[in-house]
Design a protein that fits this description.
Layout (H helix, E strand, L loop, with lengths): L2 H11 L3 E3 H9 L7 H13 L4 E4 L2 E3 L14 H13 L5 E4 L17 E5 L4 H11 L5 E3 L3 H7 L6 E5 L6 E4 L2 E4 L1 H7 L12 H13 L4 H10 L3 H16 L3
Parallel strand pairs: 5-7, 6-7
Antiparallel strand pairs: 1-3, 2-3, 4-5, 8-9
Amino acid sequence: MTTSEVIINYANLHNGSFSRKELMQELAGRENGISEQTLSLQLNRLVSSCQLCRTGRGLYSLPTDRLPELLYEPSVWECNIYGKLKDKYPFLDFCIWSPRVLSSFMLHIPNIGYTFVDVEKDGMESVFLTLQQIVTDRNILFAPSSEDCDRYLTGSNAVVIRQLIGQSPLTMVNNCQVPRIEKIMVDAIGDNELLFASGSEIYNIFESAFERNQVNRSKLLRYASRRNRKNQVEQIICTIEQDDKSGK
């Protein structure tokens, strides 16, 4: 995650306003700290590009007309599992999240209780075996088929091990790596575990996401390309924009 993304994330987590002193204190406690010089440079660049406003001496805020970013806030349980896995596999890239985050964008709310652990391919089996040892009260599913999802996921609290695609849009929240909205939106198109988002619901998800939150289209399309879904994403966006122009 870039320094600019760290700053914007911090602003979003603090209702859009923050002080330079508080931000510096937060960053000083992190493993890979950011120098004061680097922080000052990035703050000035964000102000110059109108991504931040300077509201006083050492005080900053997000622009009032800026849509908020969707920051997935992991549960205590998810943070605990992430921490245990990170301690065991410090160099493995993975993220944790629940598709419950999609519910707020949908018209028909599905019964979702399961959690995803998206892991780079080479580490999937190791994480699967570890989770079988440390999570004893939930089923652990390894890259389930659509049939497995129909059979075992509805209404369950299972943990699903899935492959993390390289260069997925991710961010850190509460020391836990979670997906950005761009990954969530693209994953909703056709993943076995997210078939409840198919049909007309995928249009509701995309339309609501664009209306309520900041969506980086270049990241969205880049990730969609890596998942061979760029044409589908472009078609969904085109349909939504045409409906908007025609007044639905």
